[in-house]
Amino acid sequence: MSKELSNSFDSPVNKFEQMLQTNSVLFFDVQEFESIIHHYIDSGEINLARKAVSMSLNQHNNNIQLILLKSELLILDGEIDKSYSLLKGIELIEPNNQEVLIQKATIYSKKNQHNKAIKILKKSLKFIDDPSEVWMLLGMEYMMTSDYFEAQKFFKMSLNLDPEDIQTLYNLIYCNDQLKEYGKSIEVLNYILNINPYNESAWHELGKQYLKINKKNEALTSFEFAIISEEKFSGAYVEKAKILEEKGDIIEAIENYQIILQIEDESSYIINRIANCYEKISNNQEALNYYEKSVKIDPSNNNCWDNLIKFCIKNKNYKKAILHLEKVIKLNENNLNYWKKIAFVYKETKRFDLAEKA
User: Fold this and answer.
1) Hey, how many other C-beta atoms are within 10 angstroms of the C-beta on 116?
2) Residues 26, 31, 33, CA angle at the centre, nearest 5°?
3) What is the Cα–Cα distance from 186 to 191, expressed in whole angstroms?
4) Rounded mean pLDDT of 273-294?
């Protein structure tokens, strides 16, 4: 019966899950177990990964690859000392095993012993064909020690091998930012865009880098290319709208903010910015509508409340100011700023007893 079951599934994972459901015992080779365990680790189903590791070592108790997977799970579970003991055992057999070295480096990193991690990772470079993962890890370790110059070097090497690796790109740009080398970020982003002109993330980041050196026209163009590459890229619309606001193109800025509201759920931040735009062009009724809408969407957003109340007081709409101040004080009665504002409004409306009480 076990043999029949084992031949009836199109993937090791399906076969493993059927075995668990039926309480039967099936045989899996090492490669099948590796595939199953990686699947569960990647999908975050750690309990199933643990079961698969336990069963795999029952069937193949001395297999180094399976022991390494057990060690990886122990690291994920925070059982660092147990993992280290397993790795030391493997190291006696295979002193230059790349995975052992990487996991040991991970353990040292978790213990904040970054220099030890760096030393081991550099050692591992002697024994591997594809160094990109180790370069990326070295970049992370140097970044943790605030040695951004060295981190920058390894992230750039890794990115040269895989220009589509967005996380490494962001890490490199972070290092450049810390060193205030915005030109280097622009250079690497243009290199990536030469390879893939429709990389919306690279266009978006390029726009942000141009803003850091006050090149707003170039930034605006970059955000527009990000939108051309991905028409639902809300982050690019936000940045584009903010530049349009600064340039005084308020109506066009509002149009871009409105597009964001069509792409994703309503956000108090975007609603608030629309309100601010309407205030700039003296459309006070629309401004008030949007300011009020922003606090309904997120009553915990103090910035939205502040803008709404400031707007009401500025326009001497004291009735609305009192209404909203009373609401926000109920939500946050310890905020002295709101008590001061309501005292001011009561005073302006000749309600001196309430002003004194406030």
Assistant:
1) 16
2) 45
3) 9
4) 96
